Amino acid sequence: MGVPRPAGEFDTTYAYDMATIRRNWQWWLLIAFIVSLYALPFYASQSIVSLVNRIAITVIAIQGLNLLTGYTGQISLGQAAFMTTGGYISALLVNLAGWHFLAALPAAALGAGIVGLLFGLPSLRVKGFYLTMSTLAAQFIIPWFTRNIFPDILNGAQGVNVRVPFMFGIEFNSPQKYIYLSLTALVLTTIAAHNISRSRLGRAFIAIRDHDLAAELLGMNLFKYKLQAFFLAAVYAGIAGALAAHNIRHLNSETFNLNNSVMYLGMLVIGGLGSNLGPFFGAFVVEMLIEFATLFGPFFITLFPATAAGAVQALKPLFFGVTLMLFLIFEPRGLAHRWQLLKTAWRLRPFSH
Are 196 and 70 in contact (CB under 8 A)? Predict the structure, then answer.
C-alpha cells in the first residue's frame, strides 16, 4: 500500500510519481529553509553558527553510516576511524603537498573509501555481531597507525595542525565563513544519498538488508554490493572527517574515537534507520541533548556538589544513553517513522481510519 495522497492529487506521469517534492509550496518552503541556513551568520550568534556547523558535518558522517547500516544492514562501529583517515589525508595534502582544498576533499573521500573497502572484506564471511567486531578493529588499527607510523610527518600522538581552507580570495577561518562549506557539502551529499537510495544500487542494498539469502538466489553478488556499501560509507566519513579537521584546525588519533562511532550509530537509531531524514533528526536531537547537558551542568552541580569535577562531561553520555534506551523501547523505528505517520494522519484527516 502506497503513501496516501491528499484528495484530488493523482500521479499522471512516472516523473511525478517518483518526485520527492511534489507541490510548488514545498519547493518554496525548502528554498526558504536553505536560504535561512545560508543567511545564519547575519542574524545568529557565533555559538549557534558553530552548532549548525557541527550538526552539518555530523549529518554527513551519519548519511554514510545510513547507507551501510540503514539500507544494507551491515552494522559498523568504525565510522569515526574512517573520518580520521579522511581528515589526515586532507590535512597532509593541504599542509605538505600544497593542494587546494577543493582537490584535497575528494582525494580524502576516495582515500577513506579505499580504507573502508579493506575493512569491508570480512563482510562476505561474517555478519551480525562478528561483523561489528571486525569493523571495530578499524577503530583501533587506524589510530595506532597515525600514532606510530611516519612520526616525523604525522607527529605521533600530538597530531597535526590543519590549515584553514582558502578559496576565491576568502580564508574560511571563522564559523560564520566555514558554514558555507559545510552546508554546501551537506546539500550535495544529501542529494547523492537520496538518489543512491532510489537507484538500482539502493534497491540492491535494501534486498540484502531484508534477506541476503533471497537476494543471492535472485542473482545478486552479495560481496560486490556489500563492498560498495562499505566504500560509500567510508567516502561520506572521509568528507566529514576532512571538513571537521579543517574546521577545528587540529587533528590527532583521538579527535574521532570509539565514542564518536557509537554516538553516530545511536544518532541513526534515534533518527530512523534506512530513511533519508533519519540522519538529520538523529544528529539534531543528540546535539541538542549535548547542549542541554552543558546548560544543565551548573544546576546539577548545585544539587550534587560532590560531583562538581567533570559533572558536565558525565551528563552528556548519561543523557545520550537514557534517550537511546527510551527510543529503543518506545520508538524503535526512529523519528523519521513517526514523522511519516504524522504526515499520513494529516493527509487522511478528518477520517478516523
Answer: no
Which residues have CB under 8 Å from 199's CB, separation 6+?
none
Q: Structural domain boundaries of the chain?
A: 42-348
Question: 78 and 53 in contact (C-beta within 8 Å)?
Answer: no
The yes-or-no verdict on residue 19 having pLDDT over 60 is yes
Across the range 163-172, mean pLDDT stands at: 89
Residues 83 and 241: beta-carbon distance below 8 Å: yes
Phi and psi dihedrals of 93, rounded to 5?
-65, -40
pLDDT at 32 over 70: yes
Residue whose C-alpha is closest to residue 256's, from 93, 123, 88, 105:
88
Percent of the chain with pLDDT strictly greater than 90: 65
CA–CA gap between residue 69 and residue 265 (Å, rounded): 9
pLDDT in tens, 53-73: 999 999 999 999 999 999 999
- Enumerate the H helices of the chain as residue ranges: 14-18, 24-38, 40-43, 46-65, 79-95, 101-120, 129-136, 138-148, 151-154, 175-198, 200-210, 212-217, 222-248, 258-271, 278-303, 311-330, 334-348
Q: Which residues pair with 160 in a beta bridge?
A: 251
Other Cβ atoms within 10 Å of 69 Cβ, number: 24
The answer to whether 260 touches 83, Cβ cutoff 8 Å, is: yes
Region at 274 (left for phi over 0; alpha for psi -120 to 50; beta for the rest): left
pLDDT at 255: 92
Count of C-beta atoms within a 10 Å radius of residue 129: 9
Q: Which residues, 6+ apart, have CB-to-CB distance to 122 below 8 Å?
A: 130, 131, 134
The architecture that CATH gives domain 42-348 is Orthogonal Bundle (1.10)
| Dist CA 72 CA 209 (whole Å) | 5
- Pairs from 167-171 (Cβ < 8 Å, separation ≥ 24): 167/100, 167/101, 167/102
* Chain position carrying cell 536553505: 34
Per DSSP, 68 falls in state: I
Q: Name the grid cell of 42.
A: 547575519
